[in-house]
Every structure is written in structure tokens, then in C-alpha cells.
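User: Could you check the structure of this?
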Amino acid sequence: MEFEWYEYIYVIVAGIVAGFINTLAGSGSAVTLPLLIFLGLDAGVANGTNRVAIVLQNVVAVASFRKNKALDWRQGFILAAPAVLGGVVGAYISTLLDPEVLKRFIGGVMLLVLATILLKPSRFLKPADDAVVQIKSWHMPLFFLIGMYGGFVQVGAGVFLLFGLVMGAGFDLVKGNAVKVLIIFCFTLTALAVFVWKGQVDWKVGLILSIGNMTGAWLGVKTAMKGSAEFVRWLLIAVISYSSLKLLGILDLLMESIS
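Assistant: Sure, the predicted C-alpha cells are below.
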């Protein structure tokens, strides 16, 4: 599909915003997916095309965190394994089903995540020296389910991963973000293969969107390495609040009542 030249500028700018949010928190796809659909892509193709940018965005993020020695490869790959399997399952399901019911469910779960972040801020603000990482057997099915959701619709997968890494496995926010982008790279790469197989990828749009996402990811790592956990926590709160209200359809109802 061909866009007008100025529409590609919108795509790049949206990609920068999404890449930044995805690297520090998650749900950046809440910016890019609606834009791609608004510009004329079929919802399924938009979902697949968005994965191209996310894969390349996380190449930049992983390389940048590695350069700053913030990435634990071993623990990242251990948790990535179940997420990859889940991503393949979720991506295949997304090519067959309407995601609306699942989106409502995820919106409700996000509200519970938001409550935890607000009520237990110390878990997200702990210094790196106080972080004790422990990978347990129950993390495997948890990260499989997060990967399955990420393969299905992507929006919010980073939030759930970061929540699981910090609240469940004991990472601090910086190292948790580093492992998060590695896991997302792994399961999105396999999910993208499913969308390519199903013919639901517009490569031109995806690669142009990637320019923005990769730039945003680079900026996000720069911000994360400054160690401002409080900023990242508030960004998470803002992102989760918006995403949950959007997924539950509350924002749409508010907009309709205003108009």
C-alpha cells in the first residue's frame, strides 16, 4: 500500500515515540497500531507490519544495553525460551481470532498491575545493589503466557514483562528493562515469521516505521542508563493508565460523550 509522502513522516514520528516508550516501559504499539490502521492498513496487516519495527527497535535496544553492561544474557535467554514458544502460539491465534474480548480482559489485568505499582512503589525504586534476582519454576508458565499475549496483540507486552521481571524475578528497573528488550526481540522475531507466513506484513511501511522505532529505542536506553527509576515508574503509570482505559473502551466512550 502507498501512503502520501507526509504520511510517512507521521509514521516515523510515531515510531520514535513508540520506541522510546517500549524501551522504558511498554505499550508503545498503542501509538503505532492505531496510526497504521487510520492510514489505511488492514488491522491484521498493521499488527504484522508493526512487528518489523519492534524487532529492529529491540536490536538497537539490546546492543545499547549490552554496551552499557546492563544486560544479563544468561537469565534473559532462560526467560526468553518460554516467551518465544508463547509468542508463536499467540501470533498464530491472532491470525484467526478477533482480539476484542482478549483486549478487554488485558485492560482489566492492567488495572491490577497499576494498583500494585502505586501501592508498592519501593519494589520498583529499589537500587541495583539491593536487587536479588531469582528465577523460579513458576516463572516459566508466566513468561509463556506473557509471550503468548505479545504474539497475539503486542500492546502492553513490555509492561507485563517488566512487571514480571521486577515484581517476580527481582530485577531492578534498569536491568529489568535490558532483559525485557532481549525477551521481546526473541519472541517478536518468531511471531513476525508467522505474520510473514500468513502474508500480513507490509515491508515498506514496516521498514520506514523502524527508522522511528530504532531512534526512540536509542533515546530510551540513554534515559534508562541515567538511573532515574522514579521517572520510569511514573512513565509506567501513565502508559498503563492510558492502555487500560483504551483497551477497556473507556477512552472511546469519553471521547464520544465529549463530541
